[in-house]
């Protein structure tokens, strides 16, 4: 893809600023190692806030936002270009990804002027961190089946229920919350979208221990938690439409920059092979089957890169990618799964080592990549989207689409 002259100038300015002010990623960066834990989380959060404020002061945050909320009023293509350039540098601002990539676009699309003025400036500068809460124990892939109940009492919503797999809930100030407000109508029509203060009474956050040993994900319980009606996004019952805005922005953000992972993944594998040659005296790339898998990773990475450039082109033309984001997200998940598995297989028995004895973070990559198959929409849901919206296949049968939610047969509570 060839950038327009304006976007090309923007890219050059972004690259120059990063080269002058930010450290480049270390040579051992492994794009397949996801959901990284930090030994001193408080220190990491403090560093993240400092960097976020610095980026905001320099004009590299909220690039597409209206200027009245601290943005630059530029195109989505400019935002993607910044993300592409910044990917090569060690900017510890990952904790703001949900806020900037999902919460902010949703607030800009559905929020009132008062909501935008309250939430966007602190988000821009890293003063407040956001999480999103859609999935539940019985509502993962079928997001519209959520049962967390919100009942309007006066000018407050009283919320009861549970959410699962929430990233960063334990350090977030605000949460995007999809609730069931009317069980007497079909499931998609009875949802209301709220923003909840994660520090308020009635909200309990508990860690979920993963295979990696980390606790990036959490479960959140609501016990008569009260949310002012002024913290509702969209109309009561229109929560599904608001949620789609959040999800489409998430998948597009993943897809637009996911193409950068291919070359980085191949490079990480080559570094691993060099390390193994130093340790064991043989290079795995001498094995024809390993070499074939390495070439396969490189090819898939290049295809994903070209597809990601199609998304950037669409954004530059003012179009909003829909199914393209699902294609890219599915391809990225598949690529990183292949990379992590090859990284372990190439090590042979050494791949079973853990902790300080392990070679790099390949064990974490192997144990962590299944989480990406769930985050941002499961692989199965992405395939449904692609089949229906790209290939034109008929929709899967849906016997519950027009049935009032309270009449659906559901698993009894355990």
How would you explain this protein's 3D organization?
The protein is α+β, with helices and mostly antiparallel strands and 414 residues long. The chain folds into 3 domains: 5-128, Butyryl-Coa Dehydrogenase, subunit A, domain 1 (Orthogonal Bundle); 132-238, Beta Barrel (Butyryl-CoA Dehydrogenase, subunit A, domain 2), CATH 2.40.110.10; 244-389, Butyryl-CoA Dehydrogenase, subunit A, domain 3, CATH 1.20.140. The protein has 11 helices and 8 strands. It has helices spanning 5-21, 41-57, 76-86, 97-110, 113-125, 239-258, 261-280, 288-316, 323-345, 362-372, 379-389; strands at 130-133, 149-153, 156-167, 174-180, 191-197, 203-207, 217-228, 232-233. It has a 4-stranded mixed beta sheet. It has a 4-stranded antiparallel beta sheet with strand order 2-3-7-6, with no helix packed on it. Helix 3 (76-86) packs antiparallel against helix 8 (288-316). It is globular. It starts with a helix and ends in a 25-residue tail after the last helix. The model has no long low-confidence stretch (mean pLDDT 89).
Beta-strand portion reads 5-15%
Can you tell me the CATH superfamily of the largest domain?
Answer: Butyryl-CoA Dehydrogenase, subunit A, domain 3
Order of helices and strands: HHHHHEEEEEEEEHHHHHH
Overall pLDDT confidence: 89
Q: What fraction, in percent, of the residue positions are helical?
A: 40-55%
Uncertain ranges: none
Strand order of the largest sheet: 1-4-5-8
Total E-strand runs: 8
By CATH, the topology of the largest domain is: Butyryl-CoA Dehydrogenase, subunit A, domain 3
Radius of gyration: 22 Å
Structural class: alpha+beta
> Count of helices?
11
- Overall outline: globular
Question: Can you identify the CATH class of the largest domain?
Answer: Mainly Alpha
Total domain count: 3
> Biggest β-sheet: count, sense, barrel?
4 strands, mixed
Kindly report how far apart the N and C termini lie. 53 Å
Please state the second-level CATH architecture of the largest domain: Up-down Bundle
């Amino acid at each position: 893809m060839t950038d327009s002259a304006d976007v090309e100038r923007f890219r050059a300015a972004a690259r120059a600023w990063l080269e002058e002010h930010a450290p480049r990623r270390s040579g051992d960066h492994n794009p397949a190692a996801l959901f990284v834990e930090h030994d001193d989380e408080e220190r990491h959060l403090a560093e993240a806030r400092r960097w976020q404020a610095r980026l905001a002061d320099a004009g590299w945050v909220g690039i597409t936002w209206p200027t009245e909320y601290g943005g630059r009023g530029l195109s989505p293509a400019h935002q993607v270009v910044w993300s592409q350039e910044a990917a090569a540098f060690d900017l510890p601002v990952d904790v703001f990804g949900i806020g900037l990539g999902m919460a902010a676009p949703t607030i800009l699309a559905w929020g009132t002027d008062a909501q935008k003025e309250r939430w966007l400036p602190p988000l821009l500068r890293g003063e407040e961190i956001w999480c999103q809460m859609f999935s539940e124990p019985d509502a993962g892939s079928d997001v519209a089946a959520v049962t967390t109940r919100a009942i309007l009492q006066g000018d407050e919503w009283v919320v009861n229920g549970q959410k699962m797999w929430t990233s960063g809930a334990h350090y977030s100030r605000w949460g995007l919350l999809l609730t069931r407000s009317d069980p007497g109508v079909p499931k998609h029509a009875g949802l209301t979208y709220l923003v909840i203060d994660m520090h308020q009474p009635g909200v309990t956050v508990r860690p979920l221990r993963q295979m990696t040993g980390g606790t990036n994900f959490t479960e959140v319980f609501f016990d008569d938690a009260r949310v002012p009606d002024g913290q509702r996004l969209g109309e009561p019952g229109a929560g599904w439409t608001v949620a789609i805005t959040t999800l489409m922005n998430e998948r597009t953000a993943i897809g637009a920059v996911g193409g950068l992972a291919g070359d980085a993944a191949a490079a990480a594998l080559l570094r691993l092979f060099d390390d193994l040659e130093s340790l064991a005296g043989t290079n795995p790339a001498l094995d024809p089957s390993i070499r074939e898998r390495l070439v396969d990773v490189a090819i898939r990475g290049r295809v994903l890169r070209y597809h990601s450039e199609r998304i950037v082109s669409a954004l530059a033309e003012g179009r909003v990618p829909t199914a393209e984001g699902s294609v890219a997200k599915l391809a990225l998940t598949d690529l990183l799964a292949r990379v992590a598995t090859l990284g372990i297989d190439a090590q042979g028995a050494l791949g079973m080592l853990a902790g300080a004895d392990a070679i790099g973070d390949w064990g974490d990559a192997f144990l962590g990549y299944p989480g990406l198959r769930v985050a941002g929409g499961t692989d199965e849901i992405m395939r449904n989207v692609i089949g229906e919206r790209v290939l034109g296949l008929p929709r899967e049968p849906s016997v519950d689409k027009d049935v009032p939610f309270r009449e659906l047969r559901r698993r009894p509570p355990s």
